[in-house]
Write a structure and sequence with these properties.
One of its GO terms (biological process) is protein deubiquitination. This protein is mainly β. The protein has 4 helices and 13 strands. It has a domain of about 140 residues: Cysteine proteinases (Cathepsin B, Chain A), CATH 3.90.70.10. The longest helix is centred in the first third of the chain and has 8 residues.
Length: about 220
Amino acid sequence: EVSMDDPETAFCTLANREELNPEEDSIHHCLYQFTRNETLTETNKLLCDVCTQRHCGPKSNIKSEKKSVYTNAKKQMLVSLAPPILTLHLKRFQQAGFNLQKVNRHIKFPEVIDLAPFCTAKCKNVAEGNTKVLYSLYGVVEHSGTMRSGHYTAYVKMRVMNNHLSDLILQGQVQASETEPVKGQWFHISDTHVQPVSVSKVLSSQAYLLFYERLL
């Protein structure tokens, strides 16, 4: 879907992302890098229909791609619809010559995360005037081992469920006023073994998948 937005507001976010100053090796830094503004130049130029028509006349007169006009452009990926459940998948492999290696370093992640700096200013299901889109952590998947073999375990928070959460969010009636994580007990699950753990243990894990739920 192509939309013609005002260039002055097309790259605006719900909250000022420039004030973030995210810490290296943190989930905030990952999100900041993933949603950064990119300039498309040289071989990455954008095919512009308007420029092509202006240069060559109506589309019907364009007989080959050689006449198409490519132009410099800006690109930015932002969240346009805040999901009820936010799933973050960390890329934990890197190319090393002809082989893939697992990335083992710890990535910091919070109990409560604000998605507003990564949402478009016209985010569809955020109430007008809200500058926060808060999520509370409720699940973590961790992988131990190598690229060839390993074991998956999970951290899950047992907490009170809100059956109306999804409906409220989809109807745009969410008021993100909470700043504290949803209360509950964390458990570590490995195959058939389940044991209670502290939140500090969870936050020190080597996360592979993070699961957050939207706060009211």
